[in-house]
Amino acid sequence: MSASSPELPFYMQGNFAPIETEASFDELEVIGEVPDTLSGHFLRIGPNPTDGDPGHWFFGNGMLHAIRLEGGRAVSYRNRFVKTPAYLGEDIQMVGPDGQVNRLATTANTHIVEHAGKFLALTESAFPMEVNRDLDTIGPVDFEGVLTTSFTAHPKFCRKTGEMLAFGYSFLPPFLTYHRVDARGKMVQSEVIDVPGSTMMHDCAITENYIIFLDLPLVFKIEEAMAGKMPYLWEESYGARLGIMPRNGGNADVTWIEIEPCYIVHTLNACERDGLIVMDAARYDEFPDVNFDSSPGLMTRWTIDLAKKSVKEETLDDRNCDFPRMDPRREGQPYRYGYSTEFADGPGLEMKQLIKYDLDVRKTEVHDFGTGVAPGEGVFAPSAPDSGEDEGFILVMTYDEASAQSELQIIDAQNFSGDPVARVQIPQRVPVGFHGNWAPDNS
Ligand SMILES: [Fe+2]
Fold first, then answer.
1. Which of the 8 DSSP states describes residue 13?
2. Which of 36, 244, 246, 314 sits 20 to 30 Å CA-CA off 269?
């Protein structure tokens, strides 16, 4: 059962509270029918502290959850901790006695991605941790020693080249480093990008030819770090800028374009269209700290004219949202559809429903899960490798507080507001997490 106490922070209560055990279950009960076109694993990761309150929602040990779908069945569920050095009991500090950052000090709790045949559990302050489909931990990945900095939890994947485009940021110089990994998993570029200071850079975006860095005014404060607090604070005077760099270019090729101060936790996507660069993301007016108790994130479009170094900003929707996702085959390519999770007003990260955006005609639809049922991030799974954009399903973990039931709900993306086609009953509570992905067998 989940804990509930006014003394506990939100991330230790209700369905944010951690679970303690690793479990495996076969042949899950399903309400409805699992589409028989879905064959693979739905993977979800999140923080799951093992030793009481870790001090912030972001700091718990990573726990993976995997649901296998095959032949119209929900074949299995399992959950496993990522066996990081810290989880295994090593006395490992982020900053060692030599003043250097130890990139093996990781929670591995933020995202799970697949590239070049490897599954990587990511957190933005450290090296990736490789795991397999059975959720066994294989170990840290430093790309044969080429990676010496942190590695973002939000690398981008180009379906045309097979590349993984990424970056690492740090509170010690170098503050920002670009990483390009080829289709075979070899890190072919790792290059320092000059920025004025250390900011918290959670995500980026790509187009066919560019990567977009987000240098926004959530600035590292050594005093906060020394006090053991979350050390990134809002400092509007730092300014806000997008750094647009050719993906095969380098630091000298970055065009920095000033934008209105704001914060972006997650981008939805970006692309090149009619000679312009378009980027959609959930935009926060300000971000006093990383407790998400301030202004909402609103889906916003930045249209950038690189030649004129100009940018136009427009709000696309007036509902609080984050966790934007899209058809992963369209990453960096022209796209029409996107999805996000709507948040209730006020503190505590109450997730309400899913939103679908038709960005061509500027129309939205919502999927309402009913009273007391909270969704997480909606992940798009194509119905076939060559199906069209939007031809597929949204996979989302939900939790019904009254019945304490976690489900994997499967929604037809083209009947978004309709009843889910399947509700996979998870035999144990799955705490609120961060991100997930659909890993089809044919990937
Ligand atoms: Fe994230």
1. S
2. 36
Spatial distance between the Cα atoms of 234 and 159, rounded to a whole number of angstroms: 35
How far apart (Å, rounded) are the C-alpha atoms in residues 93 and 80?
23
Q: pLDDT by residue (tens digit) across 33-81? A: 999 999 999 999 999 999 889 888 888 999 999 999 999 999 999 999 9
Q: How far is the CA of 124 from the centre of ligand 1 (A)?
A: 9
Give me the count of residues in the chain.
443
Q: Which residues pair with 344 in a beta bridge?
A: none
- CA dist 379 and 327 (Å) reads 8
Q: Which residues contact 123 (CB under 8 A, 6 or more apart)?
A: 62, 106, 107, 108, 109, 110, 111, 153
Residue 292 Ramachandran class (φ > 0 left, ψ -120 to 50 alpha, else beta):
left
DSSP state of 104: T
Residue 243 · residue 193 · CB < 8 Å: yes
Ligand 1 centroid – CA 122 distance (Å): 10
Distance 295 CA to ligand 1 centre (A): 18
For the beta carbon of residue 67, count every other beta carbon within 10 angstroms: 25
pTM to 2 decimal places: 0.96
Distance 123 CA to ligand 1 centre (A): 9
Cα angle 149-438-116, degrees, rounded to a multiple of 5: 45
Task: Show the low-confidence residues of the chain (pLDDT under 70).
Answer: 1-6, 289-295, 347-348, 443
What does the alpha-carbon distance between residue 417 and residue 136 come to, in Å, rounded to a whole number?
A: 36
What distance in Å separates the CA atoms of residue 196 and residue 189, rounded to the nearest whole number? 22
Percentage of the chain with pLDDT > 90?
Answer: 84
Measured CA to CA, the distance from residue 43 to residue 159 in angstroms comes to 20
What is d(CA 127, CA 5) in angstroms, rounded to the nearest whole number?
35
